[in-house]
């Protein structure tokens, strides 16, 4: 097991390195970070532009810039920023903000996927099944930002109608934050409600379809039939033999969807004006802030690689036939 | 028969089962009645699709979603049909237990074996503690013959072999001391020596629980050896029933007669041509008027086609459903089913030649097995084939027999140059095999015609493809393809249909026609009939024999079914763990086997003859075939050899362990009997 983890991590290193190099070259070629500065009226003096170019390492060849950037990261140096922000100091709190959104959304989506998937599998071809299918496809075809705006507007209307803030619609926490531990937790959770719902709603339909089909397949399996032939009651067989086995492949699906969820979070956070990874990426792209964009991409790619490994390990724990090797 | 024998424990009366289908409903069981008496074994035989398994599942109330059941199923005095699922749960396992066909899929892969047996124990003893249930599970596993049961309860199903898993399933069936055990094809997926072990385990289960048993199988040999009474099913109905002796020795329904006539026999009792039953069973998606067997029955008259014969007594409790059962007294299969000669391709036979066409010289094939460590160093080698030599001449059939893992299919792949040998070589006319150059001379027919034929090509295109690949013009290839299809018995409209529109036997014919397209001199037949039902299998075997004789082909016939090999082969090579342990003329090998493994193998094949089968001395091998990654030193068979484990002295044993026995005079055993 340990050997496997080490080998997988060793495999992951070149993947992340090659990936980061390719994205670095592409991001570097995507525009001139000093474009805004150069377009200023009245024009900025040549010396200032040169100094800025030097600070942004634009006077170095791409390979050297990449090496500079890569070797800086272990020291906590994420590279210079156009807006002169400290990328490292800025990104970590934002990662935490987004991570709690994605985590909660994954949990909610999983719960929904299990309930909907199992019910539709057991009551296959019934009205309930068809209704769930219809809702699933509706949510699938609905853009996340539209659902977010819809919910946000509903919440604002509700708040106005009642005259008090029942549901938070802006930001990831109140400003200024409340004092004390529990009030802070309550405040953060309150702000999480709407974005979590939006993100979970867009994530769960494919998962619930997956649970449904694997439950149907497992229910027809010989071992479920044998379990029932033993004289075990249907409901118990359903949970113990069918669901338990049907869950195994879901881990891989969820892990693979994690990257999609992070991009979904960008949209959702923007609608709800969160100071998370989403707005960080958007402003970095707008400012052609190469190193900020790279920081975002590097973090998300590392997260995706790590969670794929976690899913594979979990798979082996859930299904003993899987031998890691 | 004792007094007990007359009390019915399980009765099925006029049972019907239908399933939804894309074209409507399929009635799989059309009014089946039988009665199981206390303590007896009732054999239910029939080919695939005859409704055997659907009947069993209907009894258990485990039919899939959408199935409709009618009639009656009574356990003692209680009607089981119509019970709620939780009421049935109380019956399942405790009154009626079941053993399923495929041991590889019957156990849940994510729970330990001990858990799954203990679960069955606790299903009807909710008060029993977890530990006590596990103790009972260990006792059950020991009873069915799992070695070191206590150490193995925490292991998962994938860590057990197929035979061991089937024992676990039998232990589960025994767990609640049932009154009835329904075994649905319990040994079909297993090798013969393992089948013998599992049948012993089933007998143990019967003796321990005193349960009456319904043994569902397509294998007439198994029924002949195990059952007291037999029910023969055809197209969802019972067509004949009676004691084993009545049904096997005096069948009174043409179908039963046909089944018996289409069986190749290991005891050489029928060396003549097999008598296949023409055609295939009817589709059950529309009502059948008259006798369902009439379209395939040579005796059928207008009466048969319009009026369905009832299952009526012909002699005491011997029942048959045939208008002409009285005419069948003392008729042999070949009297009723005239063998049809096949139309053959107008090709000129391969010229006889004195030297062998194909020679395999010291073939060796090893596969690398990778370890799990950080650098995945090679953990060892899988010794699939070890020093195998043989030759093959025109018009000759060499049968290659052995159980799973013996290296049969690897040899086929080496011969076809689909893989490169680690050592040794294949010679064609004395010349080393060149990859492309000899493709025409060597062709292969695979086991599963469904998987080896492209589902998006018509029969004619499939047969024409090898010709087109080799540069024949479109028109010419098509003419030849139609000719070939005709010669394997598929004529006319069939050529434009797709593989899924054919029956299994017809698909295999397409596979054969395709292999013949390039006028090969050698056909490698890798389990060509093992996926087919017996009546269909006989037809394909006859076809293969006719083609061989007409075209002078040489066959390498690979099979695990010894009876089929005995029927078709001239010479036989018996493989065990990649080595040839015995080879020679087929009659010599099967009638006077000299290697202990061959002796056990031959004795383990059930004969479809109740008296002979019951009188036979059976050698049941212990344990499973060892892993080819780490085969035993010296003689590879010694870990299971009855001589090694029983009769030999220590000095003799040392030789078995230390020295690989050479293949001398056709036997590879240090202590072979003359």
TrEMBL record, chain A:
PROSITE patterns: ABC_TM1. Residues 95-315 form the ABC transmembrane type-1 domain. GO terms for biological process: transmembrane transport. It is a multi-pass membrane protein. Keywords: Cell membrane, Membrane, Transmembrane, Transmembrane helix, Transport. PANTHER family: INNER MEMBRANE ABC TRANSPORTER, OLIGOPEPTIDE TRANSPORT SYSTEM PERMEASE PROTEIN APPB. Belongs to the binding-protein-dependent transport system permease family. This is Peptide/nickel transport system permease protein. It comes from Actinokineospora auranticolor. The lineage of its organism: Bacteria, Bacillati, Actinomycetota, Actinomycetes, Pseudonocardiales.
From TrEMBL, chain B:
It is found in: Cell membrane. It comes from the Bacteria. GO terms for biological process: peptide transport. SMART domains: AAA. Transmembrane segments: none annotated. Keywords: ATP-binding, Cell membrane, Membrane, Nucleotide-binding, Transport. GO terms for cellular component: plasma membrane. InterPro entries: AAA+_ATPase (IPR003593), ABC_Ni/Peptide_Import (IPR050388), ABC_transporter-like_ATP-bd (IPR003439), ABC_transporter-like_CS (IPR017871), Oligopep_ABC_C (IPR013563), P-loop_NTPase (IPR027417). Residues 10-260, 369-602 form the ABC transporter domain. GO terms for molecular function: ATP binding; ATP hydrolysis activity. It is a peripheral membrane protein. Belongs to the ABC transporter superfamily. This is Peptide/nickel transport system ATP-binding protein. It comes from Actinokineospora auranticolor.
């Amino acid at each position: 097991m340990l050997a496997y983890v080490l080998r997988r991590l060793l495999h992951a290193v070149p993947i992340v390195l090659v990936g980061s190099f390719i994205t670095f070259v592409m991001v570097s070629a995507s525009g001139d970070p000093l474009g805004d500065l150069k377009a200023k009226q009245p024009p900025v003096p040549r010396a200032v532009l040169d100094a800025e170019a030097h600070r942004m390492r634009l006077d170095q060849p791409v390979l050297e810039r990449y090496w500079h950037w890569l070797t800086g990261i272990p020291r906590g140096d994420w590279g210079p920023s156009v807006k002169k922000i400290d990328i490292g100091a800025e990104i970590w709190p934002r990662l935490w903000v987004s991570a709690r959104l994605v985590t909660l959304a994954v949990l909610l989506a999983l719960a929904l996927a299990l309930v909907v998937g199992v019910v539709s599998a057991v009551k296959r071809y019934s009205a309930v099944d068809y209704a769930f299918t219809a809702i699933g496809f509706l949510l699938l075809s609905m853009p996340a930002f539209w659902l977010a705006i819809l919910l946000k507007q509903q919440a604002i209307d509700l708040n106005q109608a009642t005259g008090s803030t029942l549901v938070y619609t802006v930001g990831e926490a109140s400003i200024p934050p409340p004092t004390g531990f529990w009030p802070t937790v309550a405040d953060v959770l309150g702000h999480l409600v709407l974005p979590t719902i939006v993100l979970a709603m867009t994530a769960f339909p494919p998962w619930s379809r997956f649970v449904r089909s694997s439950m149907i397949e497992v229910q027809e399996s010989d071992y479920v039939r044998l379990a029932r032939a033993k004289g075990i009651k249907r409901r118990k067989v359903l949970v113990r033999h069918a669901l338990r086995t049907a869950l195994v492949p879901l881990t891989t699906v969820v892990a693979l969807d994690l990257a999609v969820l992070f991009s979904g979070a960008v949209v959702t956070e923007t609608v709800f004006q969160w100071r998370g990874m989403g707005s960080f990426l958007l402003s970095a792209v707008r400012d052609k802030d190469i190193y900020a964009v790279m920081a975002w991409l590097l973090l998300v790619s590392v997260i995706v690689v790590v969670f794929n490994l976690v899913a594979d390990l979990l798979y082996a724990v859930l299904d003993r036939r899987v031998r890691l090797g | 028969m004792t007094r007990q024998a007359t009390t019915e424990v399980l009765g099925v009366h006029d049972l019907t089962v239908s399933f939804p289908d894309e074209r409507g409903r399929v009635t799989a069981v059309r009014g089946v009645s039988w009665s199981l008496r206390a303590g007896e074994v009732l054999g239910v035989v029939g080919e695939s699709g005859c409704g055997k398994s659907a009947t069993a599942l209907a009894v258990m109330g485990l039919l899939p979603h959408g199935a409709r059941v009618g009639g009656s199923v009574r356990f003692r005095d209680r009607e089981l049909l119509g019970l709620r699922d939780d009421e049935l749960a109380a019956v399942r396992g405790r009154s009626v237990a079941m053993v399923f066909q495929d041991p590889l899929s019957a156990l849940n892969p994510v729970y330990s074996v001990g858990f799954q047996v203990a679960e069955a124990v606790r299903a009807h003893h909710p008060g029993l503690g977890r530990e006590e249930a596990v103790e009972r599970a260990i006792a059950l596993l020991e009873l069915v013959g799992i070695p070191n049961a206590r150490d193995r309860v925490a292991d998962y199903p994938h860590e057990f072999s197929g035979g061991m898993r089937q024992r676990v399933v039998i232990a589960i069936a025994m767990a609640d001391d049932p009154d009835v055990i329904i075994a649905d094809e319990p040994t079909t997926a297993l090798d013969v020596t393992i089948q013998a072990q599992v049948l012993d385990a089933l007998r143990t289960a019967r003796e321990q629980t005193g349960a009456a048993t319904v043994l569902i199988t397509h294998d007439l040999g198994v029924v002949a050896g195990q059952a007291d009474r037999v029910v023969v099913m055809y197209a969802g109905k019972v067509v004949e029933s009676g004691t084993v002796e009545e049904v096997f020795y005096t069948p009174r329904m043409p179908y039963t007669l046909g089944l018996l006539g289409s069986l190749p026999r290991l005891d050489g009792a029928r060396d003549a041509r097999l008598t296949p039953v023409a055609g295939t069973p009817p589709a059950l998606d529309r009502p059948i008027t008259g006798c369902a067997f009439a379209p395939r029955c040579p005796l059928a008259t207008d009466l048969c086609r319009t009026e369905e014969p009832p299952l009526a007594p012909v002699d005491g409790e011997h029942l048959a459903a045939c208008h002409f059962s009285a005419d069948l007294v003392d008729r042999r299969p070949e009297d009723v089913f005239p063998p049809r000669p096949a139309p053959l391709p107008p090709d000129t036979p391969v010229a006889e030649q004195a030297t062998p066409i194909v020679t395999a010289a010291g073939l060796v094939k090893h596969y690398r097995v990778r370890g799990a460590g950080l650098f995945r160093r090679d953990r060892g080698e899988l010794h699939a084939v070890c020093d195998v030599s043989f030759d093959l001449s025109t018009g000759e059939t060499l049968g290659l027999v052995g159980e799973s893992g013996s290296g049969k299919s690897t040899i086929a792949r080496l011969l076809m140059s689909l893989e490169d040998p680690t050592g040794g070589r294949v010679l064609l006319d004395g010349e080393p095999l060149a990859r492309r150059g000899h493709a025409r001379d060597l062709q292969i027919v695979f086991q599963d015609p469904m998987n080896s034929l492209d589902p998006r090509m018509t029969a004619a295109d499939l047969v024409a493809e090898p010709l087109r690949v080799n540069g024949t013009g479109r028109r010419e290839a098509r003419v030849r393809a139609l000719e070939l299809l005709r010669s394997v018995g598929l004529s006319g409209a069939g050529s434009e249909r797709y593989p899924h529109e054919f029956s299994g036997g017809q698909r295999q014919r397409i596979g054969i026609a395709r292999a013949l397209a390039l006028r090969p001199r050698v056909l490698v037949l890798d389990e060509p009939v093992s996926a087919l039902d017996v009546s269909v299998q006989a037809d394909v075997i006859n076809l293969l024999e006719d083609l061989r004789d007409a075209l002078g082909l040489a066959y390498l016939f690979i099979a695990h079914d010894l009876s089929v090999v005995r029927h078709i082969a001239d010479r036989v090579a018996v493989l065990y763990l990649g080595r040839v342990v015995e080879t020679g003329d087929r009659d010599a090998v099967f009638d006077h086997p000299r290697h202990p493994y061959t002796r056990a193998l031959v004795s383990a094949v059930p004969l479809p003859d109740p008296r002979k089968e019951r009188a036979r001395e059976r050698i049941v091998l212990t344990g499973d075939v060892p892993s080819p990654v780490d085969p035993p030193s010296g003689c590879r068979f010694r870990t299971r050899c009855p001589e090694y484990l029983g009769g030999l002295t220590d000095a003799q044993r040392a030789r078995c362990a230390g020295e690989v026995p050479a293949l001398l005079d056709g036997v590879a055993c240090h202590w072979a009997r003359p």
